[in-house]
From TrEMBL:
Keyword presence, Chaperone: no
Keyword flag Amino-acid biosynthesis: no
Listed PANTHER family: SPERMIDINE/PUTRESCINE IMPORT ATP-BINDING PROTEIN POTA, SPERMIDINE_PUTRESCINE IMPORT ATP-BINDING PROTEIN POTA
InterPro entries on file: AAA+_ATPase, ABC_SmlMolc_Importer, ABC_transporter-like_ATP-bd, ABC_transporter-like_CS, Mo/tungstate-bd_C_term_dom, P-loop_NTPase, Transp-assoc_OB_typ2
Organism of derivation: Streptomyces bambusae
Keyword entries, A-Z: ATP-binding, Nucleotide-binding, Transport
Protein name: ATP-binding cassette domain-containing protein
Residues of the ABC transporter domain: 17-247
Domain of life: Bacteria
GO terms of molecular function: ATP binding
Amino acid sequence: MTLTAPEKTAATAAATVELRSLRRSFGATTALDGLDLTVRPGELLALLGPSGCGKTTALRMLAGFETPDSGEILVDGKDITGVPAHRRDAGMVFQSYSLFPHLDAVDNVAFGLRMRKVRTAERRARAAELLDLVGLADKGGRFPHQLSGGQQQRVALARALALRPRVLLLDEPLSALDAKVRLTLREEIRRLQQELGITTLFITHDQEEALSMADRVAVMRAGRLEQIATPAELYARPATAFVAEFVGTMSRIPGRLRPAGASGTSGAASVEVLGRRLLVDGTPPEAAGTADAEVDVLVRPESVQVAADDAGPARVLATSFLGATVRLTVALPDGTRVKADLPAHEAAALTAGAAVRLSLPDRPVLVAPRTA
């Protein structure tokens, strides 16, 4: 669809959003612990993390529904920390849709315009344009109970865009939908966001959703930012063990650390794992800083190499068909379970019970303190 003049204007007015040292506690619970975050003009930034990490609190502060105990919220350098929600140039889409049941789709979309005293004809024309934009041009006269969950969420998105906000806030908007609708709608949201060029903060606990939609992903834990990066960088080079295990599938394989400067390490820390020595990616954890410390090596399934070997020390426990690939669950002699992804044709002969030998490619690996 070709953007109209108002949409093109919105696309050129994308805002820079900054959260500076935000802190917020609820009684003895710390929701945000000095959060610093910048959303670039026109980008879609996903805030990802487990329940209770503070991501929704951060979004509600940006919307004006929560007040920080300390810190600042800036849009294009202007401090809006004390500005009421209705005076912030932001549109919000909630998880629960929050449509008015007694209003049809057109009037739901036009509600904010009505509150701003926009003339009836103008606001209904604007609502019709937006319903067309989200693919609901023929549903304007329907009430919420006459719409599917995905259609209701599209109406909620159109309503958020009606006031032409410079910042769009999405609070887990797809979590209540079934898998097929969720996939379709996330593609539509991304398409609209890119067409409009609107700065967007997207909250989710679904890693696949975040990685597939966002320009960058910010992973939170206990009110703090663990890492912010592009989806590809976040997956390939996680900054911490928490990020590595939260984003994607990761196995822990026992290893033995050789600190930097130890004999034969060429001045860099290395780890002995699966019968070979590999360099450590990044700085080893302090708890594993002594010579010959026991650590866990964190590896992705696609990095694990599996070879059939009648004398191999490992055994295939189970296989899962994933289409082009097959995921193997393999048990090491000490009982450690390792996930490995192989092309389907290579895994055909590796059935449950098969003896195998595991290895890792010759590249640096991430290590973490040994878990019990």
